[in-house]
C-alpha cells in the first residue's frame, strides 16, 4: 500500500512539474505554493500543518517522503539533496520536451494530410465549376498536387476575391494568371502550366458588317473592351490604346450585343464556351479577326506569400509539375480535353 501511494505521489510531482514547465510557470511564487500545499500536500503528508512553504522545500519533502528506505526524513546530506533535486528537475524537463515533440509531430502530420486550398473563377474551359474535373487547367493542378501526395480543395469566387484570399494567406494560390509586374510585387508565381493565346478580336457583324484591323493603331477607331485581370490591359496601356473597362467576359459580350462595345479581345476557347452558353442561336452573327501583334501568354498559379509553408510548397509544386510533364500525365490531360495546342512550348526547366 505504501509503495502504491508513494508511486502515486511521485507521478503527481512529475506531472505537476511538466505542466508548469510547458505553461511557463516554474513554481516560482508562493501563491502557487499555497494552492499546492492545501490541495495535494494533505493527502501525502497529513501530519504536517497546512502552511505555505517554499516551493523548493515542497519538492524536497514530497520527493524524499517516497524514497523507499534509502534515507530517513531530515537525515540526508546537502549534496544528496541537491543531486536528487536536479535529477527530478531533469526528468521533468525531459518529459516536457518529449511532450512538445509529440505535439509538434502531430500538428505536422495533420497539416501534411490536410487539403491545400486553391481558389479560381469561372473561365471555361480552363477552370469552371460546371466542367468535368473543373476544367483542364484545374485537372493539371490536381495531378501536380497528387504527385506531391497532397489533395486539393477548390473554391470558386469572383477574381478579385480570389486575389484577396491569396494575398491574405487564406488560400495557397489562385489560377490561372498571367505574369504582370504589378502582381509580382504582391504574389509569388509557379511555373507556367499552360498557355493562353489572346489572338482573336470578336465583333458583332450586325453592327459592323466589314471590319478590318491591320495594326494596333486601327483599334483606336473602335470601343475596345478591357476585361478585368487580363494581361492585355497593361499591353494596351504601354501602346496608348484606349479601352472600356468591364468586370467579366460575359458582361463584355452583353455590352457588345447592346452596342456599348465594338471589339472584345479574348481567347478563342473561352469565347466559344461563352457564346454557346449565352447566344447559342446567334453564334453566326459574331465575327472574328486576328489580333495584330499578338503573343502567347503563359498561365501560372498566383501563390500567396503568407500562406503557411508556402515557401516549401511552391518548390515542391514546381518539381512535381516537371515530373508529370516527364511521365506523360500532362500530355494525357491536354489530350483528354482536346487542348493540346495550349501545351507549354518547352518542358519546364
CATH-level-4 superfamily name of the largest domain: Periplasmic binding protein-like II
Uncertain runs: 24-45, 50-55
User: What profile does the largest beta sheet have?
Assistant: 6 strands, mixed
> What's the number of domains?
3
Secondary structure: helix percent: 40-55%
The run of helices and strands is HHHHHEHEHEHEEEEHEHEHEEHH
CATH class category label of the largest domain: Alpha Beta
Q: State which percent range the strand residues make up.
A: 5-15%
Helix-strand makeup class: alpha/beta
Instruction: Give the termini distance in whole angstroms.
Output: 72 Å
Looking at the structure, the CATH topology of the largest domain is D-Maltodextrin-Binding Protein, domain 2
Taking all Cα atoms into account, the compactness measure Rg is: 34 Å
Question: What report would you give on this structure?
Answer:
The protein is an alpha/beta fold. It folds into 3 domains: 2-111, no CATH class; 114-192 and 299-342, Periplasmic binding protein-like II (D-Maltodextrin-Binding Protein, domain 2), CATH 3.40.190; 199-293, 3-Layer(aba) Sandwich (D-Maltodextrin-Binding Protein, domain 2), CATH 3.40.190. 47% of the residues lie in helices and 13% in strands. The protein is built from 13 helices and 11 strands. It has helices at 2-23, 30-39, 41-44, 55-66, 78-113, 136-147, 159-168, 181-184, 231-238, 249-258, 268-278, 310-326, 329-337; strands at residues 116-120, 152-156, 173-177, 188-189, 194-197, 200-204, 225-227, 244-246, 264-265, 286-290, 296-303. Strands 1, 2, 3, 4, 5 and 11 form a 6-stranded mixed sheet that branches. It has a 3-stranded antiparallel sheet with strand order 9-6-10. A two-stranded parallel ribbon has the order 7-8. Helix 1 (2-23) packs antiparallel against helix 4 and helix 1 (2-23) crosses helix 5 (78-113). The radius of gyration is 34 Å and the shape is elongated. It starts with a helix and ends in a 12-residue tail after the last helix. The relative contact order is 0.12. Mean pLDDT is 80; it is low at 24-45 and 50-55. This is Extracellular solute-binding protein, family 3. Residues 121-338 form the Solute-binding protein family 3/N-terminal domain. Keywords: Membrane, Signal, Transmembrane, Transmembrane helix. The chain crosses the membrane at residues 7-28.
